[in-house]
Amino acid sequence: MTTRIRRWIETDTGHRVPNHKSKCCHLHGHRYRWEAEIEGDVVDVEGVSDEGMVMDFSDVSAILREHVHDVVDHAFVVYEEDADVRSALETMGPAHRTVVVDFIPTAENLAKWAFEQVEPYIKTSYGNRLRLVAMHVRETPKSWASWTP
């Protein structure tokens, strides 16, 4: 039998949805919540640090921090074909944190992107068959997107 755990981090990140029919076509930002859902067997090896756990929550946090938070926190995520915004951001100089992506940065696409950033680092230890089940992204308190392979 497997067990699932979840751990999350938050970032302050800007974006825009270039062709959106409403206000999301404007430059704006969100307090994003990035939540990893991991499945595996509880470690039953006596005396190891992870005994009784699927994965240590602090290890999950470290992965999320390095591969999501440190990439997009206080940055602006922009679609590579959004020439107007890319041009405007370039005028702010190299100190401005801009993350150029090959997709429109909707919550749905960001969930998939985050999954791809995190998944390679979810490693099985002690034979407990770990796997990243999903990444959930909260864009607003009422709006979530999830990506599951």
| CATH level-3 fold name | Tetrahydropterin Synthase, Chain A
**Count of DSSP-assigned helices:** 3
Shape: elongated
As residue ranges, the low-confidence spans are none
SSE order, as H and E? Answer: EEHEHEHEE
Helix content: 10-25%
| Structural class label | alpha/beta
Q: What portion of residues belong to β-strands?
A: 25-35%
N- to C-terminal separation?
Answer: 21 Å
Main beta sheet strand tally, sense and closure: 6 strands, mixed
Instruction: Tell me which CATH architecture applies here.
Output: 2-Layer Sandwich
Radius of gyration: 17 Å
Strand sequence of the main sheet, in spatial order? 4-3-1-2-5-6
CATH homologous superfamily annotation: 6-pyruvoyl tetrahydropterin synthase/QueD
Overall mean pLDDT stands at: 95
Top-tier CATH class: Alpha Beta
Provide a descriptive summary of the structure in words.
- This protein has one domain (3-147): Tetrahydropterin Synthase, Chain A.
- The protein is built from three helices and six strands, in the order E-E-H-E-H-E-H-E-E.
- The chain has helices spanning 57-72, 83-90, 107-118; strands spanning 3-15, 28-40, 75-79, 98-101, 131-140, 143-147.
- The two termini are 21 Å apart.
- The model has no long low-confidence stretch (mean pLDDT 95).
